[in-house]
Amino acid sequence: MTAQTRKPARLDELDRNILRALQADAGQSLDEIARQVGSSKTPVWNRIRKMREAGVMGPSTVVVDPQAIGLDACFFVLIRTSEHEAEWQRTFLAALRARPEVQEAHRLAGEIDYILKVRVADARAYDVFYQALISEVRVFNVTALLSMEEIKTGTALPV
């Protein structure tokens, strides 16, 4: 997502129903989606194609259970920096994008400049991530918060 704002797409009820069906399970067949939304396959496919072209939908992906692959620890990392120059920001953002442990990164308003969602195996793996990050980019303060329990997660948006 970019900082640029754009006009929201104009969606009718059929578009919204298609999006709900895809958000629930993007792997289902076109026939199944058409059945769920009360339409036929061709109009549903055309609408999906148009929504993709309009940027309403990104690429389809698979949701992997982190614990099933040994990523048991989720840290929320709060970063404060005294650096705000363009070059520092480019280096910092490149470092974040290069690290698969970083699931999400957000620039914030307020006292904290950035928040990261980091998935790793354990505290030792987090420390390896942390040491590598601070060796690449200078930051003023880093606070790591270990998530004790994931209460709600998801990517579905209310459409």
From TrEMBL:
It comes from the Bacteria. SMART domains: HTH_ASNC. This is Leucine-responsive regulatory protein. Residues 11-72 form the HTH asnC-type domain. It comes from Jannaschia donghaensis. GO terms for biological process: regulation of DNA-templated transcription; response to amino acid. GO terms for molecular function: sequence-specific DNA binding. Signal peptide: none annotated. SUPFAM superfamilies: Dimeric alpha+beta barrel (SSF54909), Winged helix' DNA-binding domain (SSF46785). The keyword Transcription applies. Keywords: DNA-binding, Transcription, Transcription regulation. One of its GO terms (cellular component) is cytosol.
